[in-house]
């Protein structure tokens, strides 16, 4: 708000400077040199005020930027604080000994599974593999459900209709 007020003040002074300069010229033309000199002194003073105002605006903007950056830093520090608290809670829940125990148990389980895999891989003979393939074929055949074929012969001719042959039948179906 203060920055905006200073900017308005600058605009007012700038307009006043232009008006006083024009007035000083007019006074010089009229021969009133002392009055023109007084206006030029006033103008010079206002220019100095304008420079001071510009410096104040600069300082205010720098301060606003510093405040905004400090707010960002505070948020970062707060995030780091929360993260640190989280890590400390996790460290309390899980100790180094606990992690080492879990890693050891996992390695033991992996080794045990590897031993089982070696036993299974080495125990199958060629006869066992043939038996397995035959069982797979049997299961595959069982899963194929084919419709039953009718036992009585199909009629050659339906009374009142022409005999249909396969190509004609397909044409009728497609129509």
UniProtKB/TrEMBL annotation:
Residues 28-70 form a coiled coil. Belongs to the SNF7 family. The gene is Chmp6. GO terms for cellular component: ESCRT III complex; multivesicular body. Pfam families: Snf7 (PF03357). This is CHMP6 protein. One of its GO terms (biological process) is vesicle budding from membrane. It comes from Fregetta grallaria. Keywords: Coiled coil, Endosome, Membrane, Protein transport, Transport.
